[in-house]
């Protein structure tokens, strides 16, 4: 019998206990107050996405995590995919955050509730700037000249205690009481003295008829909070601009005067001499503002309708013709004059800034915020020479447009329209199998639109589709099919959010994210409102509804619930975008002896920085790319012709289109002709959908260039014939039952 005792197995090392305070950066543990309990830290971590005391790097001017670390903040969570930022909290705010959770416990309604209180703070002029809350104060300043009044805006820091209390209880009256009266402006006397001096200097010029236009310019500067020294300098510049306008209305003294964009509005002589009456028609979609504008335009002696899209220019022409008003059509690729035309309906880029007209209507003016095309609205608002200008816009764009008009020495009136019917948020997502006639499903890529079309068609529905790559004629036919009931479901991109009048009862988002050229992002509040507003068109349906497809991403309904109650807001610190016109290019070239278009455009961008308080250069990357190509391959063309070419609608991301463009321009420079349109023999109406769409881009580019270079391109009838056949071919495929999205091309 073996009496040996078996050796015992070595004991496994015990797992270290989980830290009582789990931190992304363990060294931050020393920053935690000694009195903080682990369960309290857990509450803060769980509610970090909603607590107003929690910071992200974007809350600081530096925009970095290092800046928060240097401030002694504690990191709560790391940044995650999907653009979720890291979250931090200042140690002193930990008790405040816990008190917040005691007053407003973490539930599904906490974040919307606190967001609503944040909006209430902003409506009271309060906002957070880094670690400090500031308050917008407005004080009237009365000047010596005829009792002129200027409202001065400035921001002052406020104690954070009353603000945190408001986040807890939502008591607006208590917050007002705690903040008390707005403090006086520290430099009020000095500012009044400076303003009176500027006005007296202007009076001394002896041009009393022009003096009234100085007041809105001064008000525009005082309406933007800025340090006193900067404000004095800005007011002096405003008076200088006014003085130069009075002294030099028809002549430009120097390159700086001609190109420094503090004088941009004054470069449109015809508009400045008119004393225009300007009215803003403000309201959400389906409020009747466009209808009212057309009522006024139909009564005009002569006029212009400036549309954001060729499709809407076509629709505007038809509206006026339907009222018995002869109307011409002018877009980037066509000029269709009408006999005895009183009005021209055009795309916004085609605005005529030379010839005086009776009434101009500028549509969808909130697109002044658009990164790539906003310059066209700046130009039209400032430069259209109409005795009466009607600007149709969403209400959130009004302050930016009014500031722009004040820089012109003009004070617009507002006319506010209310929506005829409200759009109701549905309680739950809608399965694709439960779609009904009158539904519009929204996606944000050509591929997704075609995929949804195929899936919905399999359920027995007739489907119309609308997306950006479709030509306007086909978009219109697809819209008409839906409008007359030939199809019962519409699948579309956000193209339906701009002006199309369709009998949509329910708008259903297939996603709440879109690719914006850089990456995927959530839809903005204004995008959600613009698209959702197409539901329940007045006179077509008694009510409108909005929801998401059940097949959308898991967060879609939550995002929609958050975005829909919010009011759209203009971009912070917005500056109106401007792009060069031929006057700028010619002046730079002549004064500096520069003939390369790329160099001229680069100088233009540098000159703009002479005064960028109100204007910013538009995105000119594509124009610069085309200019460089033209300087290398078509330098024999005069500068003005290269400048026309550089504005062509060429998507530089499409090599095929870019190659065609370069070939035509090079041939034009060498021979005076663009050459033969070989694409006429390469495409027809029987190709793949993506190939026909590609051919239509080529047709559009050829017609655009022919309109600007008469006698160089030609073959217009053949190109228009091919365009018509391609439109028919595309429409035939869209109406057919064959699947489209799996086929080649996006």
Automatic annotation (TrEMBL):
<dbReference type="InterPro" id="IPR055206">
    <property type="entry name" value="DEXQc_SUV3"/>
</dbReference>
<keyword id="KW-0547">Nucleotide-binding</keyword>
<dbReference type="Pfam" id="PF22527">
    <property type="entry name" value="DEXQc_Suv3"/>
</dbReference>
<dbReference type="InterPro" id="IPR050699">
    <property type="entry name" value="RNA-DNA_Helicase"/>
</dbReference>
<feature type="compositionally biased region" description="Low complexity">
    <location>
        <begin position="1"/>
        <end position="11"/>
    </location>
</feature>
<keyword id="KW-0347">Helicase</keyword>
<keyword id="KW-0378">Hydrolase</keyword>
<dbReference type="InterPro" id="IPR027417">
    <property type="entry name" value="P-loop_NTPase"/>
</dbReference>
<feature type="domain" description="Helicase C-terminal">
    <location>
        <begin position="400"/>
        <end position="575"/>
    </location>
</feature>
<dbReference type="GO" id="GO:0004386">
    <property type="term" value="F:helicase activity"/>
</dbReference>
<feature type="compositionally biased region" description="Pro residues">
    <location>
        <begin position="13"/>
        <end position="25"/>
    </location>
</feature>
<dbReference type="InterPro" id="IPR022192">
    <property type="entry name" value="SUV3_C"/>
</dbReference>
<dbReference type="InterPro" id="IPR014001">
    <property type="entry name" value="Helicase_ATP-bd"/>
</dbReference>
<dbReference type="Pfam" id="PF00271">
    <property type="entry name" value="Helicase_C"/>
</dbReference>
<dbReference type="InterPro" id="IPR001650">
    <property type="entry name" value="Helicase_C-like"/>
</dbReference>
<keyword id="KW-0067">ATP-binding</keyword>
<feature type="region of interest" description="Disordered">
    <location>
        <begin position="1"/>
        <end position="33"/>
    </location>
</feature>
<protein>
    <submittedName>
        <fullName>Helicase-related protein</fullName>
    </submittedName>
</protein>
<feature type="domain" description="Helicase ATP-binding">
    <location>
        <begin position="270"/>
        <end position="415"/>
    </location>
</feature>
<dbReference type="Pfam" id="PF12513">
    <property type="entry name" value="SUV3_C"/>
</dbReference>
